[in-house]
From TrEMBL:
InterPro entries: Na/ntran_symport, SNS_sf, YocR/YhdH-like. It comes from the Bacteria. Pfam families: SNF. This is Transporter. One of its GO terms (cellular component) is membrane. Belongs to the sodium:neurotransmitter symporter (SNF) (TC 2.A.22) family. GO terms for molecular function: symporter activity. It comes from Caloramator quimbayensis. Signal peptide: none annotated. It is a multi-pass membrane protein. Coiled coil: none annotated. NCBIfam families: Na_transp. The chain crosses the membrane at residues 12-34, 46-70, 91-117, 151-169, 181-201, 213-230, 265-283, 347-366, 386-409, 430-451.
């Protein structure tokens, strides 16, 4: 039994391709298809996009490399990794905060994933045939206000994620991501082709690609930073945990760059699928979280065989959400199995049960007319509060600490050794440039964004 547990614990991904798709599966999720478009819409389009790209290049990729470095070097969960790498006790807080973030994100993420699953079901049912903008808006309201249906869908989501995770790293995570990520990519491209041929689509492009800096606020800059962390699943030990399953010969810097670039491409493709349609149907780009749910059914309802494509689209959005949630849940699961000696099945069930119970609060808080919807902490309902604390505070702070830990508290030889796969990659120059950025650019940018967002300085 003990032996069996050990082998399960240290199961790894089987190949470079598996590493890439699993990691991309974590990064690509509701963030690309639901969040990126509506946040870009709400924060001034292309100006926001530019700040976002800077965050990805100078903060996201460097922090991702750090997480892979810690994970693969120690082959441990987000908490145990800090012990194994010889860090003093305090650094473990990063791992614990990561576990808290995994829960906070899952509380609201599983709710939105539930909406996506229910839309898939409706699409299969043919509910969107010939839909107009008003009916589409009404359908979204009906979907999220429940109270019972959104909770049921959320529970279904959590059961699906649990079943995959119980199957293990290779048979669960690897198999699902490797099969379905490429299909998602193809489907988004099909949506794009349709969206850009709609009348009035050009306005959507202007909105997405022509910067208007006057509409970018300090809060918008912090949001871009938070989105970069959320998008790339950083600052909370997810990539550390996945890194601990990487193959020995994986090129960590190259994988980080490939994943970040592919993920950004998927976000842009989602934006291109959505904004031209928004303008074409005379809707507002800053429509908020409903953008995906209201506009996508409209776009597809205009296409020949649209309903079939709509089924495929929501099926693949469900997959994107599911593969991202697998990585979120894996953070506490890896901790519980390795540090607390729980078997994998029990760890998965314990974790998702807690996520289910508190996740219901987030789901019920969406209805502002309900008792829970009226609860306000720091001026936010549960759903928004869980989101704000994790994305805008815990992930960026976690990312800053991870960057400082690796950049200043790890021996250069150890980093060079790991990032060059013990010298086999001959990439010392690149590692040196990386270390310069990690030490002097990443933390400085992160701190500037924070000071700016709390009003202490003005960028
Ligand atoms: N990256 C995922 C998305 O963009 O939807 C969300 C996410 C997954 C955030 C895993 C954090 C995480 F650890």
């Amino acid at each position: 039994m003990e032996e069996h547990q050990k082998s399960l614990k240290r199961e790894n991904f089987s190949s470079g391709i598996a590493v890439f798709f699993a990691t991309l599966g974590s990064a690509v999720g509701l963030g690309n298809i639901w969040r990126f478009p509506y946040l870009t819409g709400a924060n001034g389009g292309a100006a926001f996009l530019i700040v976002y790209l800077i965050c990805i290049a100078f903060i996201g990729i460097p922090v991702m490399v750090c997480e892979f470095y810690i994970g693969r070097k120690t082959r441990k969960n987000a908490v145990g990794a800090f012990d194994k790498i010889g860090a003093s006790k305090g650094w473990k807080t990063i791992g614990f905060a990561g576990i808290v973030s995994a829960f906070l994100i899952m509380f609201f993420y599983s709710c939105v994933a539930g909406w996506v699953y229910s839309y898939l079901f409706r699409a299969i049912n043919g509910d969107f045939a010939g839909i107009n903008p008003d009916a589409s808006g009404a359908m979204f309201t009906k979907t999220i206000l429940g109270p019972m249906p959104p909770i049921l869908w959320q529970m279904i989501v959590l059961v699906v994620v649990s079943l995959i995770l119980i199957a293990g790293v290779q048979k669960g995570i690897e198999r699902i991501t490797k099969t379905l990520m490429p299909v998602l990519f193809i489907l988004i491209i099909i949506c794009d082709i349709r969206a850009i041929t709609l009348p009035g689509a050009a306005q959507g492009f202007t909105f997405l690609f022509k910067p208007d800096f006057s509409s970018l606020t300090a809060a918008g800059i912090l949001t871009a930073l938070g989105l970069a962390f959320f998008k790339l699943s950083l600052g909370m030990g997810t990539m550390m945990t996945y890194g601990s399953y990487f193959t020995e010969d994986n090129n960590l810097i190259a994988t980080s760059a490939k994943v970040a670039i592919s993920d950004t491409i998927v976000s842009l493709l989602a934006g291109i699928a959505i904004f031209p349609a928004v303008f074409s149907f005379g809707m507002k780009p800053g429509a908020g979280p409903g953008l995906l749910f209201i506009t996508i059914p409209l776009v597809f309802s205009k296409i020949p065989l649209g309903n079939l494509l709509l089924v495929a689209f929501f099926f693949l959005t469900s997959i994107a959400a599911t593969t991202a949630m697998m990585s979120l849940v894996e953070v506490p699961v890896a901790y519980l199995t390795e540090e607390k000696g729980m078997n994998r099945k029990k760890a998965v069930i314990t974790t998702t049960a807690i996520m289910a119970i508190i996740g219901i609060l987030a789901t019920l808080s969406v209805d502002k007319g309900s008792v829970l919807g009226k609860v306000s902490i720091l001026g936010k309902g549960f759903f928004d509060l869980f989101d704000y604390i994790s994305s805008n505070i815990l992930l960026p702070v976690g990312g800053l600490l991870i960057a400082v830990f690796v950049g200043y508290f790890n021996k250069k030889e150890s980093i060079v050794n790991e990032l060059s796969n013990e010298g086999t990659l001959k990439n010392t120059k690149l590692i040196n440039i990386y270390l310069l950025i990690l030490r002097f650019v990443t933390p400085v940018l992160l701190i500037l964004v924070f000071l700016n967002s709390i009003g202490l300085i003005k960028i």
